[in-house]
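Sample 3 of the quickstart, ligand zinc ion:
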Amino acid sequence: MTKLLAPSILAADFSKLGEEIKSVEIAGADIIHFDVMDGHFVPNLTIGPMILEATRRVTSLPIDAHLMVTNPDEVLESYIQAGANYLSVHVEVCPHLHRTLQRIRSLGVKAGVVLNPHSSVTSIETVLEDLDYVLVMTVNPGFGGQKFIESAFQKVGQLDKIRQERKLNFLIEVDGGVKLDNIAKISQAGTNLFVAGSAIFGSEDYRATIKAMKEAW
Ligand code: DX5
Ligand code: ZN
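Result:
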């Protein structure tokens, strides 16, 4: 089964972002997770297409843009033009989700849908053929360093079951509160893409932490 570790640069030191990205790449990261927050969909305000374009210039790793914005349809193309390889939108703000996914795929990148902790798998069951990954939020979006919401395990298991039953190929991504001490359990539930911000950037030795996480999953 595909397993990929995606450090979230939300927890990086922004005063030396280029170096931080290079450091996790050298340390064994598989994907760079890029958290876009607009100050409306979530209370926090972070980074946009200009920083994504700069990120693209310092790494050859795929970039996974997670759009926590109220208007993804209006802005998604600018993130793809800036160099995103994976792009996810929240189900809660996509009235025409099928169309949005088709558009993301037509622009040549992997299309993902994000479920907030309160959003159900049922809300996306009809588009599972039309996406490349489902991102299960395991904290309420907006900030790094929060505690993993245990009830999310059930959602990951539910998605994994549907994936097997319907012989689908989408990946399951988990974002929020992923640590060395819970990554094995998250993996057993069927997760493929593991986002980790504070667990990696908050550690002393990125290489040792990434290695330990990959040994544990
Ligand atoms: C939260 C973001 C996450 C965040 C995870 O809204 O989507 O990607 O960076 O941070 P940690 O791993 O510290 O929970
Ligand atoms: Zn994220």
